[in-house]
């Protein structure tokens, strides 16, 4: 009888529902962390090197479309909801033409930088 009680107690103590709130879980960030202020520095007509300077290297290159860079960020917190944010930068003739994704272009985005 004591063995059965000990097994039942061990099973209850090791179940995820009991132990899970007590276990520390780390946040796992992956990809390019971008903020709106980083995207606000982009201007139409920027070269690829200028975009790379502002945003860093893209996390994913589209092998089928060389005129597109993808910046993706995923945060899996130890507790809570997974956060995913993405930005796609579109080039035409090797200069920045548009952006799309989870960030809004700055009001000055369509004002080219002066050479």
UniProtKB/TrEMBL annotation:
Role: Part of the outer membrane protein assembly complex, which is involved in assembly and insertion of beta-barrel proteins into the outer membrane.
Coiled coil: none
GO biological process: Gram-negative-bacterium-type cell outer membrane assembly; protein insertion into membrane
Name of a matching Pfam family: BamE
InterPro entries: BamE (IPR026592), BamE-like (IPR037873), BamE_dom (IPR007450)
Topology of this chain in the membrane: Lipid-anchor
Location within or outside the cell: Cell outer membrane
Bilayer-crossing regions: none
Keywords, alphabetical: Cell outer membrane, Lipoprotein, Membrane, Palmitate, Signal
Name of the protein in question: Outer membrane protein assembly factor BamE
Domain called Outer membrane protein assembly factor BamE: residue spans: 31-99
Quaternary state and interactors: Part of the Bam complex.
Signal peptide stretch: 1-17
Family: Belongs to the BamE family.
GO function term, MF aspect, one: protein-macromolecule adaptor activity
GO cellular component, one term: Bam protein complex
Species this protein is from: Aliidiomarina iranensis
Highest taxon of source: Bacteria
Lineage: Bacteria, Pseudomonadati, Pseudomonadota, Gammaproteobacteria, Alteromonadales
């Amino acid at each position: 009888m004591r063995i059965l009680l000990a097994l039942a107690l061990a099973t209850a103590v090791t179940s995820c529902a009991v132990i899970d709130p007590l276990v520390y879980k780390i946040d796992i960030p992956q990809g390019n962390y971008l903020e709106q202020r980083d995207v606000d520095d982009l201007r139409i007509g920027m070269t690829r090197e200028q975009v790379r300077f502002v945003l860093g290297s893209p996390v994913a290159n589209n092998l089928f479309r060389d005129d597109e860079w993808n910046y993706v960020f995923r945060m899996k917190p130890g507790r809570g909801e997974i956060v995913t944010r993405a930005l796609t930068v579109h080039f035409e003739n090797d200069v920045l033409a548009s952006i799309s994704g989870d960030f809004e272009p700055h009001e000055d985005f369509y004002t080219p930088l002066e050479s």
